[in-house]
Amino acid sequence: MENNNNSFDQDLVYAIFKIIWSRKAIEREKNEDAEYSKPEERAGTSKRNRPTSANSNALKLSCELLRLFVTEAVQRAATIAEAEGGSKIEATHLERILPQLLLDF
Amino acid sequence: MDPTAMEIIGYNGSDIDNEEDEEATNHLRDRFRLSTITIAESEAKENNMVISQPVIGCISDLAFKYAEQLAEDLEQFAHHAGRKSVNMNDVILSAHRNKHLADSLRLFSYDLKAKEPQSEKKRKKSSNKEDRAPPSLVHIDP
């Protein structure tokens, strides 16, 4: 359970995903029956356009992926800060590692 | 929102949806930032470093954007496989460009699978179906 303190909340990540997915589902619906023009129709009313969901292990894995992103950012910035002889991670250190970090994820 | 924009959008209420959407997103972004602060600070501590708050804010926003991108990728991967639900393979696939990252995610996924065989029993049928490749695609006569 100590992992809980040090990782993202599964429900939080699911909520973030859900917003994107239901937005996409609404878009799909609009695109598909544009000729019927039923704008009040929400995502999930028709079975074909139901928003995507995820199983719990996939969510845990996504949490881990995001946690790795954050820890990698901190660790790489810490390396630069250390090389410069400081003990505080500043924005300049983040700037230095950012391009490679974004390429790696 | 100004009236001209309303006219462009039309009166289907999608502007209201967008506002609600944005509010919910902002709320999630704040919660996400709190988690990021915990993770980043403990990670900095392990490296015997102090991390300044603006840096954590940046990292949090980046990670949030990454999460949103990840959501879109995962959805497309799942749909491409003909599924409505995202599974672990999709998440691993999303990291395929970085071999080390993909490997460490794969390890983590094995841990997850090994850790909870009991709680999986209930959903065994569905999760097995999702985690394995669909068998129907394989048979092609030479």
UniProtKB/TrEMBL annotation, chain A:
Localization per record: Nucleus
Annotated segments matching region Disordered: 30-55
GO CC terms in record: FANCM-MHF complex
Record InterPro entries: CENP-X
Entry keyword annotation includes Magnesium: no
BP GO annotations: DNA repair; kinetochore assembly; replication fork processing; resolution of meiotic recombination intermediates
Compositionally biased tracts (Basic and acidic residues): 30-44
GO molecular function terms noted in the UniProt entry: DNA binding
Keyword match Protein transport: no
Recorded family membership: Belongs to the CENP-X/MHF2 family.
Name of the protein described by the UniProt record: CENP-S complex, centromere protein X
From TrEMBL, chain B:
Sorted UniProt keywords: DNA damage, DNA repair, DNA-binding
Superkingdom of origin: Eukaryota
UniProt xrefs under CDD domains: HFD_CENP-S
GO biological process: DNA repair; replication fork processing; resolution of meiotic recombination intermediates
Residue span of region Disordered: 115-142
Molecular function GO terms recorded: chromatin binding; DNA binding; protein heterodimerization activity
InterPro entries: CENP-S/Mhf1, Histone-fold
Pfam families: CENP-S
Cellular component GO terms held in the UniProt record: FANCM-MHF complex
Assigned protein family: Belongs to the TAF9 family. CENP-S/MHF1 subfamily.
Protein name from the UniProt record: Histone-fold, Kinetochore component CENP-S
Organism of derivation: Artemisia annua (Sweet wormwood)
